Amino acid sequence: MNSINITEVIDKKKNGKALSTEEIYFFIEGVTNDEIPDYQASALLMAICINGMTERETYDLTMAMRYSGHNISFEDFGHTVVDKHSTGGIGDKTTLIIGPIMAAAGVRVAKMSGRGLGITGGTIDKLESIPGFSSFMTEEQLVEQVKTVGFADAAQTENLAPADKKLYALRDVTATVDSIPLIASSIMCKKLSSGADGIVLDVKYGSGAFMRDEDSAEKLAEIMKSIAYKAGKKCSYVISDMNQPLGYTVGNSLEIEEAVRFLSGREQSPQLRELIMKLCVEMYKLSDLYLIDDSSDSSTMKESDAEIINKLSGVLDSGKAYDKFKEFVSAQGGDLKFIKELESSEDYNSGYDGYKEELTYEDIVRLSKRKKKSPIISEINNKALITGIDAEKVGRVSLLLGAGRRRKDDEIDHGAGVLFRKVVGESISEGDVLAVFYTKKKRIIKQAERMLASAYELFVE
Ligand code: URA
Fold it and tell me: Coil, strand or helix: which one is 153?
C-alpha cells in the first residue's frame, strides 16, 4: 500500500523542504492518472514556485514527467540526431531556417514544436499557415522522415510527456509558469522523450522572454544542461537577447514568408543570421560530423567555429538549405506552389521597401489570406535613430491583430501580424513607413498603432 499522502507532500513543500524521489514520482503518477485533483496539483505547483526545488528534485521531476508517457528512440539510426529548443520569443522563426540548413549539411534534426500562447509564437502555428502542411505525425512517420529528408517537425503527440501537458495547462492559469525548476523540467522532459542525442537550447532573456535578465537565463540554461547530461544526452546552449523582436516579421504566415526570403537569399536580417549561425555551430558540434572520434584526443582535428560557419554558410548561400526546406514542406504535405508564390512574387524582388502599398484582393487571398494591410507612418518631426523596439509590446500588438491566442483553444488568424520596415539601428524621418499591420480586425488598428508607437525607443538627432 502506498503510504505517501498528497496533502503531506504539499505541506512539506509549503514549508520549504525538499521532496523525496518517491514523493515526486507519486505526484506525477497521480496527475497522469487523474488521481490527484487539479486543486491539489495547483497547490503543490504554487509551493514549488515560491520555495523552489533542489537540482536533484528538478531532475526527478523531469524524469518522472518524461516517463509519464512514451519515449521516441533513434537508437538504431546509425547517426546522431540533434534537436534545438528555444525558450520562446517574438518573431522567432529560427527553427524554419536552422532545420533545413543542418539537414542539408548532413545533420539529422528531429523536432517536436509547440503552438503559440499569449505573446509567444509557436513554430507549429507558423508551419500550419502553409496550405496542406500537416504537423500531425506518428512517431514512426517522424523517425522515417528524419531518416529520408533529414528534418521533421511535428506537434507534440498526446502520449509524449502527458503529465507536463496537464501541469502546464494548470500553470498557465495559476500564475505558476515563471519558476526555474518548473520551466526547466517542463522543457527537458519533452526534449528527453523526443529522442534526440544532442540538444541545443536557445535560452532567451529580455522583455519578450520568460527570463527577464541574462543571469536568470544563464541559470535556467545551466540547470537544463545538467539535466541533459545526467540523462545521458549531450547539450549546449546559447543565451540570446529577446528585448526586441527577431527579424523583420511577427505573425505566422509573415514569418514563413521571411524564412523563404532568408533561405532563398533575397533578404536576411543580420540580427537573425547571427543567431542562426550561433545555434547552427552548436548543433554541428553535437553531431557526428564533428564528433568524429570522441575517444582519441581529436581536439586538434576538429574544425574551428569559423570553419563550421564557413561550411554552413556555403550550404545556406548555395541554395541547398532552401531546397531542403522545400523538400521538408512537401514531405509534410505543404503546398509548394504557395512557397513558390512567396518566393517569386514581384513584391520580393526589391527588398522590403519594394512591398506594394496595395495588393489586389486576389494577391491577398493567394498570399495567405491576409485581409487588411495598414501602414504605420512615423509622425516625428526630426530625424531619429531607433535604439529599441520593445519585444513584449510587439507581442501584445500581434496578439491584438489576431496572430496569437490568449487561451489554448482560441482560433488564430494565420495571416495576421506585423512587418517591420524600420528596425533597431536605422534612422527614421517624418512620413517614413515604420511597420505594416496585417489584420482582419479593422476596429483595433488605432489601438494597435498606439501600442506599437509606445514600443519604439528613439534617439532624436
Ligand atoms: N516552455 C515549456 O515547454 N514549458 C515551460 O514551462 C515554459 C516554456
Answer: strand
Q: Is-catalytic flag, 171? A: yes
Number of residues that this document lists for the chain: 461
CA of 393 relative to ligand 1 center, distance in Å: 21
Could you tell me if 420 and 245 are in contact, meaning their C-beta atoms sit under 8 angstroms apart? yes
Residue 302 pLDDT grade (very low, low, confident, very high; cuts 50, 70, 90): confident
Atom of ligand 1 nearest to the CA of 114: 3
- Among the listed residues 83, 164, 202, 432, the single catalytic one is 164
Kindly report the protein residue whose alpha carbon is nearest to atom 2 of ligand 1.
187
- pLDDT bracket for residue 297 (50, 70, 90): low
Q: Is 190 a catalytic residue?
A: yes
Atom of ligand 1 nearest to the CA of 190: 3
Residue with cell 491539489: 40
pTM of the model: 0.91
| H/E element, 27 | helix 21-32
The one catalytic residue in 113, 135, 179, 186 is 186
Residue owning the nearest CA to atom 5 of ligand 1 = 183
Banded model confidence at residue 314, pLDDT cuts 50, 70, 90: very high
Angle CA 400–156–415, to nearest 5: 30
Task: Yes or no: say if 54 and 18 are a contact pair by the CB < 8 Å rule.
Answer: yes
CA 411 to chain centre: 19
Q: Is the CB of 187 under 6 A from ligand 1?
A: yes
Active-site option among 126, 171, 191, 204: 171
Residues 92 and 72: beta-carbon distance below 8 Å: no
* Gap from CA of 184 to ligand 1 centroid (Å): 7
pLDDT in tens, 369-381: 444 567 777 777 7
Classify burial at 381, counting beta carbons within 10 Å of its beta carbon; exposed 0-12, middle 13-18, buried 19 or more: exposed
186 CB near ligand 1 (under 6 Å): yes
For the chain, the average pLDDT equals 90
Catalytic residue among 190, 278, 285, 326: 190
Burial group, residue 375, by CB count within 10 angstroms (0-12, 13-18, 19+) = middle
Sign of the Cα torsion 308, 314, 317, 318 reads: negative
Instruction: Give how far the C-alpha of residue 349 lies from the chain's centroid of Cα atoms, to the nearest Å.
Output: 28
pLDDT in tens, 185-195: 999 999 999 99
pLDDT digits (tens, 9 = 90+) for 159-184: 999 999 999 999 989 999 999 999 99
Out of 117, 185, 187, 210, mutate this one to test ligand 1's pocket (max ligand atoms within 8 Å of CB): namely 187
